[in-house]
From TrEMBL:
Organism per entry: Cellulosilyticum lentocellum (strain ATCC 49066 / DSM 5427 / NCIMB 11756 / RHM5) (Clostridium lentocellum)
Alphabetically ordered keywords of this record: ATP-binding, Kinase, Membrane, Nucleotide-binding, Phosphoprotein, Transferase, Transmembrane, Transmembrane helix, Two-component regulatory system
GO cellular component: membrane
Cross-referenced Pfam families: HisKA_3 (PF07730)
GO molecular function terms noted in the UniProt entry: ATP binding; phosphorelay sensor kinase activity; protein dimerization activity
UniProt protein name: histidine kinase
The keyword Transferase is assigned to this record: yes
Residue span(s) of domain Signal transduction histidine kinase subgroup 3 dimerisation and phosphoacceptor: 192-256
Record bears the keyword Transmembrane: yes
Swiss-Prot/TrEMBL catalytic activity: ATP + protein L-histidine = ADP + protein N-phospho-L-histidine
Domain of life per record: Bacteria
Spans traversing the lipid bilayer: 7-26, 32-50, 70-87, 114-147
Enzyme Commission number(s) of this protein: 2.7.13.3
Amino acid sequence: MKETTRVFAIYKVIALAISLVFMQQYSKETVFITGSALAFLCIFIIMYALDLKCNGWKRESLKGKWLGKVNLFLILLLEGVLLGLGIEEWQPIFIVLGIELISYLTEEHDFYGLSVAGFIVMLGIYPGSINLVLINILVLITLLITINDSKKLSFYKILNRDQREQLIHLEEQIKDNERLIKTIKYSAVLEERNRLSARLHDKIGHSISSSIIMLEAAMLQMKKDQEKALISMQKATAHLREGVDDIRKALREERPIRSDLGSSDIQLLLDEANAKYELHTIYRTEGDLEQVNLELWQCIKENVGELLTNVLKHSKASAFTVEIKVMTAMVKVSYYDNGVCKGKLIKGLGLEAVEERTIKCNGKCFFEMNEMGFKVINIFLIS
């Protein structure tokens, strides 16, 4: 509530200045005016210091806050003194102190109604001159508006702080998730290596070990019985041939499908853009992706990365789409976003790199701008 405390301190000084001006107009004694001003200023400074000392203290609750109770006592004391003096020129100070008292003792939803009601009661007791009444009304209205704005400011400061803490927490969660993903990937690699090594050991290791034993037996039989030695060598050769076939079969089965490998790389790029920059990404494919060779997959992947960077830097797009359509003799790749396109197309380094990369893969590159966004189309011929 530092904002509200500051508002009341400022308005106390303003009210004091107004009261002194009116007292001078009615020819009050200079000594009395000066002494009163210094006394009020000293008390206002003490009250402001006490309120700041109660940092974070809510005005709705005084329980256990002795500093707040001291401040409340000073307000009541000043209000009593002003009532006892009965000088109508002190009314602006009386109004500000009264509103501060109400803010201490009432709930927020009752504050404004009670402030206006208290002001009306005060006018009934001390009507005062018309000029003073108008000044008091102005002080009341501006003070209530300023208090309302200060409460909103406090609310938004707290909201901003909470959102900042939530953002930090979410960033930490993202980092934890990234570390978890890396751990899972590493564990998956280790598990795959372990499975492959176990398969090679179980199916191929035994075949090679038995072949070695047969060859050693053939070496011992070479001098005594060449026919048995030859039979042993033939069996060993057959076992080794089977082992080589098993190795080729295992590697063929373990090798990832080319289309899955290339497609997953593109999907990974789009997912990262979605997670980091909140860019809605869409990936669609059609046709037999196995007809796309590795060189072409690499070209498409690099173009996706280049165009994603272009979208994030130069476009206000909220969505980015990649479509791969494989036909009988060609592959059509479309990249498009829903960004704002103005003026004539000027190819920067990024778009030139996309075009050059496409041409190197014996493809054609087309650019299109319209009210729907920006679109790039690659056409590749396949044999």
